[in-house]
Design goal:
Number of strands: 5
Strand content: 5-15%
CATH architecture of the largest domain: 3-Layer(aba) Sandwich
Shape: elongated
Helix content: 40-55%
Structural class: alpha/beta
Mean pLDDT: 95
Largest sheet: 5 strands, parallel
Order of helices and strands: HEHEHHEHEHHEHHHH
Radius of gyration: 21 Å
Low-confidence stretches: none
Length: 258
């Protein structure tokens, strides 16, 4: 097993204190039926992995009906609405009005059955204005005290800029406890490398000075840390070594530069 794969495998997610705080906010939003929350961050911050980790926790719960939409690229808001309904195995209709009624009926039936419906949307910066308006309309399905559907966005920082537009105020005002992912600390970086090695059941070969070098180079961005570790670890294995020191790490970082 490769300890430093770049694939967004939730099993490989190392939960830093900052990520645990994000999970707590998302969990509260969902469990208390607050409607909409979002996880924002720059490229490489681990948004997809975190979203999938949270989605997996809810997929295992008997009181939840959940779906994960990995990339909401649709040609229209109606196509997006039908895509949402298909994720929940809801019958598709020929008109947007009829489709919204199908979704509402599903949400009401689920609520009466004691089920919480949760939709996770990754790459949410891909949602255009009309699709965001469709999200707002979906959030209008409520009992008066609770939302019938909970939605979790994961997206790049450009999504926050778009939601700040005055035309999106009706939606942005509904976002509960949003989160912005920040870079890891040096201690988090050391712990992440150790966790990845433990998960892959290999000895941790990274010396402290090498980890510091990786941290300074990456700025604590998880993807950049893992990429540098992957190259350094591969070089070590190819050379038949057992330690990643500063010299080997410098060679790996040189290879990682475009």
């Amino acid at each position: 097993m490769k300890p430093f794969s770049l694939s967004p495998n939730p099993d490989c997610l190392f939960l830093t204190p900052a990520l645990k705080s994000v999970i707590a906010k998302v969990t509260y939003t969902i469990d208390e039926r607050q409607g909409l929350t979002c996880i924002l961050g720059d490229v490489g911050m681990g948004k997809t992995t975190l979203l999938r980790w949270i989605a997996e926790q809810y997929a295992e719960r008997s009181d939840v009906i959940s779906a994960l939409m990995p990339n909401p690229r649709f040609i229209s808001d109606f196509a997006f609405l039908k895509g949402v309904c298909q994720e929940f195995d809801i019958k598709t209709r020929r008109s947007q009005f009829e489709q919204e009624n199908e979704l509402k009926g599903f949400l009401v039936d689920s609520y009466q059955a004691g089920k919480n419906v949760v939709l996770f949307i990754d790459e949410a910066q891909s949602l255009n204005g009309k699709m965001l308006e469709q999200i707002r309309a979906m959030l209008n399905f409520e009992t008066g005290r609770e939302k019938l559907i909970q939605i979790v966005f994961s997206g790049q920082m450009e999504l926050r800029d778009r939601l700040k537009d005055p035309s999106k105020k009706a939606l942005s005002s509904r976002i509960f406890a949003p989160s912005v992912l920040t870079p890891m600390s040096l201690e988090d970086t050391k712990a992440l490398i150790g966790y990845r090695c433990e998960y892959a059941r290999v000895p941790n070969p990274f010396q402290d000075d090498a980890v510091t070098l990786i941290y300074n180079h990456s700025g604590g961005v998880p993807r950049e840390v893992i990429k540098a570790c992957s190259i350094a670890y591969t070089l070590m294995v190819n050379e038949g070594g057992s330690v990643v020191d500063v010299e080997l790490c410098q060679a790996a970082l040189a290879e990682s530069v475009m």
